[in-house]
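Hi all, posting the design record for the shared folder.

TITLE: backbone redesign
STEP: 1 of 1
STRUCTURE INPUT:
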């Protein structure tokens, strides 16, 4: 068993409320994702910390329901993975700025071993609880954490449930081989464990190699019909051998010839064997064998052009095709909680599996949504939720999140306080502004009117004016009762952003509405590029260079988003159209436009 500083199991599972964000091809989505609704409903995509997402799935009925888990977590490599975001249509650096590339950290893979192991330990425990009795988990890693992951999984899943270790030859850039010390690293490793080895789903998988005709001439036998391999005649009867010989499929080694006398076969010399011809595709000879645990036929640097998303750590679809085909059946549930560019979800969708995906990075979630929208196979639709990384602009929206997230018990008879939590009275200050001394004084005034009240107070706020915490700490030291403790939800995962400004015009024409986007400026992009808003036009000729895609909801309720129309340019240097005419479901329907810029920030404009 592996030990590290701070090692501790998960004692309790907390349910974090899921906030419905948007949908694709789904009507009447559920505000909270539950297994009962999921099994006959849409696929699920989550944005947030996967530890909290996995906890919520367990609470919502998904325990023992997942048939296949694939995760490609950070490798503790010391690298800082960066998503390079290029403004649309800007082939070169912006004049005078030396930057048209904006860098966004996708995740920082910089943990010390102890922290990394605890991070993985907690999530693997939760993942095991989600696996079905037929389920398997594939954990992708490299040489840095290979041995640590093996020991950790032995502890959680049991040594007896180890199925295999796949060595995937990713290949490396040729120049790296020249400069590598002691031999270059060119492989990743994928551990496979089952919930129960005796019951695990397993479908035999083929390994396909394609070699050039030049290589095939050196490696394979060839006759007038093409390249072939041979196998022993085995249990083939003489009658079968005669029939196969008529088909030109009998081979005799060492130059011998087949002889047939009175229905009996023999050879003048050598050994009789059976020919199996190899397929030739695009001037390459195809060889199919049963796959072993050395995967050298799926190049990591050879992602197909139609699936390449310029996303760090993106894996080829061929890799996930093999994994999903091997360890799941149609309608099995596949889970990836480090989904990145969405490869697992895309392949699961194409292969007819149900899927649940999650990522803490907003750019990853948006990349996944865009990718899945382009798939013709997307049948069940997608529902996108946030967990503990909420987007709320009003006090009431944030207050509702606080009540659900922290489990505050409300009391309708209570006029001033908002409820109770762990034996304390709860006061939720206006969450659209920082906590001020006046807010604290208002609580103290209320307590003076309740001389019999002995409970302490928990104050939830969004931001705190300087000095308040130090003053309260000193006051609490002197108080025996009614101590005031402040919790800043902004520091606990609830964030807001400075919104972009957009000019969108809506013109109704009978049953249709014409939508025109005439201007868009992102403060975040300006800040990243150090461009003053007043000279914006000098640097970016077309405002659409900032916009990644546009989504339209023709019946917007304000509660969640339903994607009815989308404009996702196929080419990276192409602009969005900017003008759209869409049909209305009814005359009084409310139309809304969601603009997602190149940094992943979203702006909603309603009619």
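Okay, here is what came back for every position:
SEQUENCE:
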């Amino acid at each position: 068993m592996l030990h590290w500083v701070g090692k501790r199991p998960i004692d309790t599972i907390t349910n974090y409320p899921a906030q419905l964000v948007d949908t694709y091809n789904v009507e009447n989505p559920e505000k909270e994702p539950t297994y009962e609704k999921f099994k006959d409903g849409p696929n699920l995509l989550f944005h947030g910390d996967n530890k909290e997402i996995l906890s919520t799935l367990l609470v919502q009925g998904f325990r023992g329901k997942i048939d296949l888990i694939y995760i490609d977590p950070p490798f503790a490599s010391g690298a800082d993975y960066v998503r390079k975001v290029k403004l649309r249509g800007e082939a070169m650096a912006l004049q005078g700025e030396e930057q048209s590339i904006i860098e966004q950290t996708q995740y920082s893979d910089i943990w010390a071993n102890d922290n990394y192991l605890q991070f993985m330990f907690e999530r693997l425990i939760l993942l095991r609880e989600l696996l079905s009795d037929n389920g398997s988990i594939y954990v992708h890693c490299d040489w840095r954490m290979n041995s640590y992951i093996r020991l950790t999984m032995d502890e959680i899943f049991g040594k007896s449930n180890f199925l295999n270790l796949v060595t995937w030859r990713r290949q490396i850039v040729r120049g790296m081989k020249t400069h590598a010390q002691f031999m270059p690293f060119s492989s990743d490793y994928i551990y496979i464990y089952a919930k129960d080895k005796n019951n695990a789903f397993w479908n035999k998988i083929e390994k396909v190699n394609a070699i050039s005709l030049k290589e095939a001439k050196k490696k394979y036998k060839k006759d007038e019909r093409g390249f072939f391999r041979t196998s022993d005649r085995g249990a083939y009867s003489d009658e079968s051998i005669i029939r196969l010989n008529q088909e030109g499929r009998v081979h005799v080694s060492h130059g011998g010839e087949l002889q047939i006398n009175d229905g009996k076969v023999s050879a003048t010399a050598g050994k009789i064997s059976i020919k199996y011809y190899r397929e030739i595709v695009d001037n390459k000879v195809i060889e199919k064998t049963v796959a072993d645990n050395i995967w050298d036929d799926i190049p990591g640097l050879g992602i197909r052009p139609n699936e390449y998303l310029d996303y760090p750590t993106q894996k080829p679809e061929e890799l996930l095709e093999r994994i999903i085909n091997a360890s799941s059946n149609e309608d099995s549930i596949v889970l990836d909680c480090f989904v990145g560019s969405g490869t697992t979800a895309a392949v699961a969708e194409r292969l007819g599996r149900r899927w649940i995906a999650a990522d803490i990075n907003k750019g990853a979630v948006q990349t996944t949504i865009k990718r899945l929208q382009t798939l013709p196979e997307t049948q069940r639709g997608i529902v996108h939720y946030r967990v503990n990384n909420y987007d709320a602009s009003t006090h009431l929206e944030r207050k509702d999140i606080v009540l659900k997230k922290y489990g505050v018990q409300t009391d309708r008879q209570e006029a001033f306080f908002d409820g109770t939590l762990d034996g304390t009275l709860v006061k939720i200050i206006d969450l659209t502004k920082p906590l001020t001394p006046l807010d604290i004084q208002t609580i103290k005034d209320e307590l003076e009117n309740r001389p019999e009240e002995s409970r302490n107070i928990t104050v939830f706020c969004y931001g705190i004016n300087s000095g308040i915490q130090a003053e309260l700490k000193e006051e609490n030291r002197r108080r025996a009762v009614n101590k005031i403790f402040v919790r800043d939800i902004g520091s606990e995962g609830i964030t807001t952003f400075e919104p972009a400004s957009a000019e969108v015009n809506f013109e109704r024409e009978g049953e249709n509405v014409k939508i025109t986007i005439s201007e868009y400026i992102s403060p975040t992009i300006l800040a990243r590029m150090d461009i003053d808003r007043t000279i914006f036009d000098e640097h970016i000729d077309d405002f659409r260079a900032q916009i990644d895609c546009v989504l339209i909801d023709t019946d917007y309720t304000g509660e969640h988003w339903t994607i009815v129309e989308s404009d996702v340019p196929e080419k990276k240097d192409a602009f969005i159209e900017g003008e759209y005419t869409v049909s209305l479901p009814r005359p009084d329907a409310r139309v809304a436009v969601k603009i997602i810029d190149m940094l992943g920030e979203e702006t909603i404009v309603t009619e």
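COMMENT: The first strand starts at residue 18 and ends at 24.
Let me know if anyone wants the other runs.
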